[in-house]
């Protein structure tokens, strides 16, 4: 991040600037290392890092193969997925909030979650293979967005309200379809799987899923990252953005698509994890202000840490797994209530 | 010729309601054009057409010789700056960030404001004497200050034509005059200005040419003294107004009132 972002302001922001850069890099790295150590399989931090360091430098295996499996096949993919999904959902939430000029918008606004949820439920009912579930969830998540968008176009308007309402319409349609699938699913075999998937979990993540996740995430987040100054201008309103030289309609479409790609691919892997994409951008906005040049990197960093923290809790809190969606909501909702009360969210 | 409006007409597509039919405007560097007209006559729509935000349904608008409708938004925004009526942004950007947005037309597709853009924005803020506001949130300053911030953003945009929709509305008397002298100052630097106003006195004060928009048309532009007559004001606003010619100041409008203080309407 270049220093000159603050060069125009009269008051030197050196102190604040340092603290936010520190947050940006140190926090995720710290969380990553800490999360590697925590787990059901009791191993000391020293042992864990010895395995990682040894593996990286190609040493002879002088450690237990079980620990290697735990670290490389279970913890590492899961940690990577949690950070990618947490960061991705937060970035996509932040950009949806800017594009729709509404700070209460979440990444699921256009019906992505319910669309993808239906896709996954359908795939679980018919096949059950992980990759098939992911692909179908992704497909229906995107389909839901295209339907919402198409509906908006059908009304010959690009109004943000109509677009959000179209999302609600498409969302309730797919949620009815989800109920239908639950109703017909085998209550002893398929139904629990569907219900658990909808609650969101990272318990079954392997490195294969992380690799599948990586490409769409990179494309979506990269697009948002490189357009983040323009989100500022876009959030002033479509007409004003156009008078400031942006092809606003196109830009908005590109950003919505990018954010949807991120959300849909996250949902396809992890199920529905709510609240992250709503709460984290607000938290970031409280720390660094509304400028998307800072907001997007900070949202990404905080979101990655937050979901990693929650997921580490999920796998350590009880003897069984606690579904992620439940944890993010029970932590996120009171937290959101708290920051709402403080009234310093950086929007009016 | 910076801008030329040729026989432009505009109708809203969904209602088919014609807003204006045949408007002709020509504006050169350093000229201030003021458009007067009653409420709801279509002044805002006309300004939006001029800024390329709306497409005229007939006629055409030429911006430095090329068709406005065929130009890219960033090209237009380097020549024409549109100052909207006062508004509330959703997010509390600082004054500096708001002004910096004026540099957007000069940025490439994926690029960010460079140190040079930051410098231009800072100079724009300082030149309007609002340097002390730079770090304040745009949402927390007064209406007059906001208007100044929007002007600073226009300065940062470095346009050749500024389109102002009622720049003095919602401002107190002092701020109105400050904004008018700012407009005057900008035009002396060679920037053309097209503005709308509800106050004929403002047209007398700053405008080089005035046009009256009425019944969907502007009959023609001319010097304020020839266009703004008592008769024209009466037709436009439906009340009787006297024009006082002051030796040192120029013309001023005074509403005619009867003994109980009511104005004379046309009825």
Description of the structure:
The complex is a heterodimer of chains A (348) and B (267). Chain A is built from 14 helices and no strands. Chain A is mostly helical and 348 residues long. In chain A, helix 12 packs across helix 13. The longest helix of chain A is centred in the N-terminal third of the chain and has 35 residues, at 65-99. By secondary structure, chain B is α/β, with parallel strands linked by helices. Helices cover 31% and strands 25% of the residues of chain B. Chain B contains nine helices and twelve strands. In chain B, the strands form three sheets. Chain B has a six-stranded mixed sheet with strand order 6-7-8-3-9-10, with helices on both faces. Chain A binds chain B through residues 4, 7-11, 98, 101-103, 156, 226-227, 229-230, 232-233, 235-237, 239-240, 242-248, 285, 289-291, 293, 346-348, and chain B through 14, 48, 51-53, 72-78, 80-82, 84, 87-94, 96-97, 100-102, 104-105, 107, 110-115, 118-119, 121-122, 131-132, 134-135, 139, 157.
Between the first and last Cα atoms of chain A, what is the distance in angstroms? 28 Å
Unreliable stretches of chain A (pLDDT < 50, length at least 5) are 1-14
Order of helices and strands of chain A: HHHHHHHHHHHHHH
Helical content band of chain A: over 70%
Average predicted local confidence, pLDDT of chain B: 91
Total DSSP helices of chain A? 14
Task: Report the total helices of chain B.
Answer: 9
- Integer-rounded radius of gyration of chain B: 19 Å
In terms of structural class, how would the helical and strand content of chain B be classed? Answer: alpha/beta
- Kindly report the average pLDDT value of chain A: 85
**Straight-line N-to-C gap of chain B:** 43 Å
Strand content of chain B: 15-25%
The biggest beta sheet of chain B is recorded as:
6 strands, mixed
The counted number of beta strands of chain B is: 12
The overall strand count of chain A is 0
Q: Write out the strand line-up for the largest beta sheet of chain B, numbering strands in chain order.
A: 6-7-8-3-9-10
